[in-house]
Each structure stands twice: as structure tokens, then as C-alpha cells.
Amino acid sequence: MSRVVTVPELLDGHTVLDIECLDRIYLNGYVPLLQVGGQVVTFLRGHLGMPVASPAVFEKIGTRFRQAVDRFAEMNDIPVVKFKKGMRKIDVMRPLLARAGRAGRPGVVAIGWAQEFQLVWDARKRDTDPSRPPQFSFAKAERRVTCYYFYVWDERWGPGFIKVCAYFPYPVKVWLNGHEHSKQAAASTGIGFTELSNGFASCGDPDALQAICDRLGPAEIQAFFDRWAARLPLPLTPADRAAGYWWELSMRQVEVSRTMVFDAPRQARAFFEALVADNLDLGRPEHVEILFKRSPRGRKPKDPASGMFRTAIDRSNQGVTINAYWRHSRVKQYLKDGRALRVETVVNSPEDLGCARRLHNLPQLQARARAINTRLLETEKVGQGCVFDSPAFARISQPTLTQDGRRAPGLRFGDPRVMALAGTLAS
Questions:
Q1: How many other C-beta atoms are found inside a 10 Å radius of the C-beta of residue 116?
Q2: Crossing angle, helix 285-292 and helix 362-383, to 10 degrees?
Q3: Alpha-carbon dihedral sign for residues 401, 402, 406, 407
Q4: Suppose 339 and one of 93, 203, 248, 265 were both cysteines; which one would form an S-S bond, judging by CB atoms 3.0 to 4.6 Å apart?
């Protein structure tokens, strides 16, 4: 009879690759000097020299920007796609990005545009003397405006996009993928690897690959934005930048992952289903608080636990994903391509981990998110005792015949009582 293999043994001794890496990175770009109404007036009058701080200037700048985008697309033979309601943008752009990746030719792959709600400056005319120049007050409001998506293939990052709003103060979004950056870096240094759909399945030098993932930080992300800001048409000019009116990046959503590739992919799904069955209570406050704690002493009294605490099982994406929610963020586990366990902390608000939003705080956020991933696995190792690929499990889960010829039904895998019995028999 073969020996029972437990989850701790599997995670410690039956993985061929264990990599921690930034995954999807979604950033906000904002102009710090255009965040309050008085700064808008200073920009219009003090910087642009307008006698009246009028919103008509916003339309002029926006029109100039839209015309520049049209010329840029025409001169470089770049396809322009209108995104319609309900359309998944990445599904439209993925074939174009894949073609650029096969060609190995960096550049703008396509430009998408859509009318979207954005937080922009809205102007209201004040009641003043009609014989005097008009005066306006400015307040931020949600308005439907034109947004451009510049999908690029970057020589160091692979696929990504920069989204630019065409109305004042021209908010920006940046989307990147840390795994794609690490793939490009590994290939350029001659490290051999095979890919998962979004990660690594094997690698000839795991330590060197992990070092590449560890080096990825704010400097590389800022370099990406600066590189493409110099190539793309933008609503702000070099003169604006020289006067201090330029974008600063902050973290909107960051995914920090740990991927553990099994040496026996055929057994991975059964193992993961067992793992899910024994961890349905991860989202309870007393459990998820342990995962997301910011220090061994816990949070300070002025920072009480609040918000949403729950565990959700998602079966909509060709498999099972277990999500444990904490405030605006979550930690999730799922089986990657049927052969690897992916643990991923999705940070939708850096404040959830006690971090500020500006990009230079990314190393601190990544360290805390990695610690969450590690604590989750440690928690499961301590609490998990499921049987993996064992004849003992086969005997209790499949129908059998008794000595007198009567048929005995198998025990239903996943039922809480059955799992408790199986754990007792295997211990």
C-alpha cells in the first residue's frame, strides 16, 4: 500500500517551481497641481495667460488632443477601434498584441476609444455684473467624456496599455503585467523557461528567475510610462511639463502572486478540490484578519476591522477559485492550467494593507502582500490533513462489495461529515 501524501508534504516536497511575482498592475495617473479649484484658475490664468479662467479652454485643448490622435494613427497606420457597450476590450486587442509579440516589434498596436464616465472638472458661471468679464467656479463631477486606449507592445514589458481621458484634468490609467515583464527579462538574459497562460511552468534557473521578479519595482514602471509618454500624443505639452503640470502615478490595483507548479499535474485537481473543501471558512473575520494583519501585534485601536468579510467560491472560469475578502481587497487561490497552485493577493486599495497609494510605496505593498500569501499557505498546512492519491481514499470514495456480496455505496467526497471521517481514518 502506498503511503498517504498530505498537503504539507505536497507543498514542501512535490513542487518543481515556486515563484513569487507581481501580476497585473493597474495605476492611476493624476496631475498633482490640478486637484483643487484654485489650481485650475492658476493653470488657466497664471500658466496659460488667459484673461478669463474659462472652461472653453478645456474644449480647445481636448479638440487639439483628439486631432493629434487622429493624425498619429493615420501617419503610423495604426488601427482605431471604437469600444461598444458590453465589449471586452482585451478580447478585441489580444490578437493584435499577440501578432506584435510574435513579430517582436515594439510600438503602438492599436488605439481604442470609448465614451466613459470620468471624474473631471465641471464649471459653473457665477452671478456677476454683466458689464464685467464672466467668472467661473470649478468642482469635480462625473461626466461622460472621450477616452483613448493606447495598446502597446513594449520591448521590456510586452503587452500593456495607457488610457488617456480627453477632458480636463486628463486623468490617465496604466495597465501592465509583471509576469510578462519577467518573461521578457528572462528571455533577454538567456534563461530557459516554459510558460503558463500567465506565469511560468518550468525554468532552467529558478533562482535567477526569482531574482528578476524581485527586481521589478517602481523604477521599471515609471520608465515604461516615461518611454511611452514621449512617443504618444498627449493633451499636456512639454511647456506644461516644464511648469510642473505632469502626471504622477499611484496604485489603483496590484496583484501579487505566488505560483507553485506540481510535479504530478494529473493529481493537481483532486488535491485542489480537497484544499477548497477544508478552507471554506477563510473569509470569517477571525481568520481573514490573521492573513491580512499588518504586524504581529495586530492593528491599532484607531484602525478597527470593518467592511466585508466573506468567502466566495467562483466556478465560472473553467475551475474553482476560492476568494477570501478583506475590506476592498481579497486573497484568492485557484488551479492554474491544471498543473499549478496560484495564490494571489489582489489589493484594490493600498490602505487595506497600511500603505500609501503613490508608486514609490510599491515595494512595501508587495512585501506585505507576499506575507499574506505565505500566511495563507502556512495556515492551510497547519489545518489541512486531506488524503492525496491514496488507496485508502479510493476505498472509501468508490462503491465496494461486502464479503456477503452486498453493494456498499462510496462516501461522497466534499461532504463535511465525509471529510471529517476521512481525516480521522487517515490520521
A1: 13
A2: 130
A3: negative
A4: 265
The set of residues, in sequence order, having a beta carbon less than 8 Å from that of 285 and lying 6+ positions away, is 305, 309
Q: Are strands 407-408 and 193-196 parallel, antiparallel or unpaired?
A: unpaired
Predicted TM-score (pTM) of the model is 0.81
C-alpha cell recorded at residue 397: 470514495
Q: How far lies 314's CA from each of 271, 326, 349, in Å?
A: 17, 17, 22
Cell numbers that stand for 115 in this block: 465614451
Q: Are 186 and 212 in contact (CB under 8 A)?
A: yes
- b vs e for 340-378, b when ≥16 Cβ sit within 10 Å of the residue's Cβ? bbbbbbbbbebebbbbebebebbeebbebbbbbbeebbe
CA separation for the pair 275, 386 (Å, rounded): 8
Q: What is the dihedral of CA 9, 10, 15, 19, to 10 degrees?
A: -90
Query: Which amino acid, 405?
Result: G
| Beta carbons of 367 and 20 less than 8 angstroms apart | no
The pLDDT assigned to 346 comes to: 96
Look at phi and psi of residue 400 and say left if phi exceeds 0, alpha if psi is from -120 to 50, else beta.
beta
Mean pLDDT of the chain: 84
Instruction: Average the pLDDT over 370-397 and give the result.
Output: 69
Of 246, 51, 231, 209, the C-alpha closest to 154 is: 231
In the numeric block, which cell numbers belong to residue 403? 464479503
Percentage above 70 pLDDT, the chain: 77
Alpha carbon separation from 27 to 69, 194, 243 (Å, rounded): 22, 29, 23
Distance CA 25, CA 224 (A): 12
What pLDDT does residue 318 have?
Answer: 55
Residue 65 has pLDDT above 80, yes or no: yes
Judge contact between 164 and 172, C-beta under 8 A.
Answer: yes
* Cα dihedral across residues 307, 310, 314, 320: positive or negative: positive
